[in-house]
Design goal:
With 207 residues, the chain is of the alpha/beta class. It is built from six helices and eight strands, in the order E-E-E-H-E-H-E-H-H-E-H-H-E-E.
């Protein structure tokens, strides 16, 4: 895995989906969104779940909905926040500016979950691009926090593809069928070259 040292203790990455958000625009765009009251409550619940985990730091996408989630949790836990553009949601390319459509997204992502990572949004990212981007970002975080637990606040579609693909002990198709809800998280242990998902939402991944 790129950038990961095998000479140190495992890092535990709690990777959470941002809280529920509302948007001004009803079309595809890079608008960051704003947490709703429910989304802020979800961030508070996430913070409470992590209260006894000795979280060392919070990392997040630079999208506003992710930053707001991260800051609520970090404030409760008394730790700092670092943003990374590389933790953004999937780039849908030429869909930007068009009316939002789940079907338009699924037309590409369903192929990813079937194993075709070369499928891509015209003018945007393919599955292999998303996977490489998240691999680099999470490897960087793991190397900084060997022997520690950190929170990473990111996005649904990117996480459902990248986390199982990197860990290799959970199929992306499972993650697609059991998507993380707003404020829910998965747990990834990075130990040298071994990446293992030990939890997906409230479930233990099947062996």
């Amino acid at each position: 895995m790129p950038g990961v040292s095998s000479l140190m203790c495992p890092a535990t990455l709690v990777v959470a989906r941002h809280g529920d958000a509302e948007y001004v625009e009803d079309f595809f765009s890079d608008e960051g969104g704003t947490l709703t009251r429910e989304g802020r409550a979800q961030a508070e619940v996430l913070a409470e779940q992590l209260r006894d985990r000795r979280v060392a730091h919070v990392w997040c996408s630079d999208a506003a909905r992710a930053v707001q989630t991260a800051e609520i949790v970090a404030n409760r836990l008394g730790v700092g926040v670092t943003t990374r553009k590389s933790l953004r949601e999937v780039d849908v390319g030429d869909l930007d500016g068009q009316p939002f459509s789940v079907a338009a997204v699924s037309a590409v992502t369903d192929r990813w979950y079937d194993g075709d990572l070369d499928a891509a949004f015209p003018g945007g990212e393919g599955g292999s691009d998303v996977l490489a981007r998240y691999a680099d970002a999470l490897a960087e975080i793991a190397d900084v926090h060997r022997g520690e637990t950190v929170l990473v606040v990111a996005h649904q579609t990117a996480c459902c593809l990248a986390l199982p693909s990197l860990a290799a002990n959970l199929a992306p198709a499972f993650a697609d069928r059991h998507p993380l809800g707003n404020g829910e998280s998965a747990e990834l242990v990075v130990d040298g070259e071994a990446w293992t998902l030990t939890r997906w939402g409230s479930s233990t991944p099947p062996a």
